Structure formats: structure tokens, C-alpha cells
Amino acid sequence: QVHLVESGGALVQAGGSLRLSCAASGRTLSGYRMGWFRQAPGKERAFVARVTWSNGLTYYADSVKGRFTISRDNAKNTMYLQMNGLKPEDTAVYYCAVGPISGPFGTWGQGTQVTVSS
User: Fold this and answer.
1) Which of 20, 39, 61, 110 could lock 45 by a disulfide, CB 3.0 to 4.6 Å apart?
2) Could you give the 3-state DSSP secondary structure of residue 88?
3) Which residues contact 27 (CB under 8 A, 6 or more apart)?
4) pLDDT tens digits for 87-97?
5) Are 35 and 49 in contact (CB under 8 A)?
6) What is the rounded distance in angstroms from the CA atom of residue 19 to the CA atom of residue 24?
């Protein structure tokens, strides 16, 4: 069973950058994909980006395309989310998740808070 731990959340000014990390342990990730989601106060959790572990194929929500970059380090079993050009509307708790390529994201981390001040 995979265990996920996020880190890197912080308070940052609009226009700034942050890099979130998600360390995975417990199993190999071949055949899986990992993703980032976020939940703002009073809103439902929303998809941000995902990466297929074996080939690095990525996909982004329109709201973050061109500003955020998802990546993974196979050796460290860690996924990253580089966030540039942050906006106040990016304020949310960010969660990482993992699931089989053909299935839902079934394992989630505890979340890390990102706050963007205007």
C-alpha cells in the first residue's frame, strides 16, 4: 500500500513561486499515475495536474496550464509541482494522490496549505 506525504506549502505573494513535493513509499509506482488536486475554502476538490509514472506523460487543468509544471523523480519516488505566477485564486489545500493508470485516484496524502496574498 502506498503512503503519500506532501510538503512545500507556504504563504507567498501574488506572482511568486512555490514547489510542492509528494514523497511516495510502500510500493513501486510503475503502472500508476500520480496527481495533484486542490481544495479552496467552500469549494469542492479540483484536479490540478497528473503524471504517468512510467513515461512522464502529463496533463493539466486549464486554470494552471503554462504556470504550473508537474514532474517526478523515479529515484526518489517523489512527485513535484512547480507553481509559478501564483494568483490569490490558487489559494487552497493541495493534495497529492496515486492510482492505477486505468482507474481512479484511490490513495491520498494529508494535504499542504498554499496561501497566495494579493
Assistant:
1) 39
2) helix
3) 1, 2
4) 999 999 999 99
5) yes
6) 16
Q: What angle do CA 13, 79, 113 make, to 5 degrees?
A: 35
Those residues of the chain that have pLDDT short of 70 are: none
SS3 content of the chain, % helix, strand, coil (to 5): 5, 55, 45
Q: How many helices (H) and strands (E) does the chain have?
A: 0, 11
Helix (H) or strand (E) holding 97: strand 92-100
Q: What is the pLDDT of residue 65?
A: 98
Q: Which of 72, 60, 61 is nearest to 4 (CA)?
A: 72
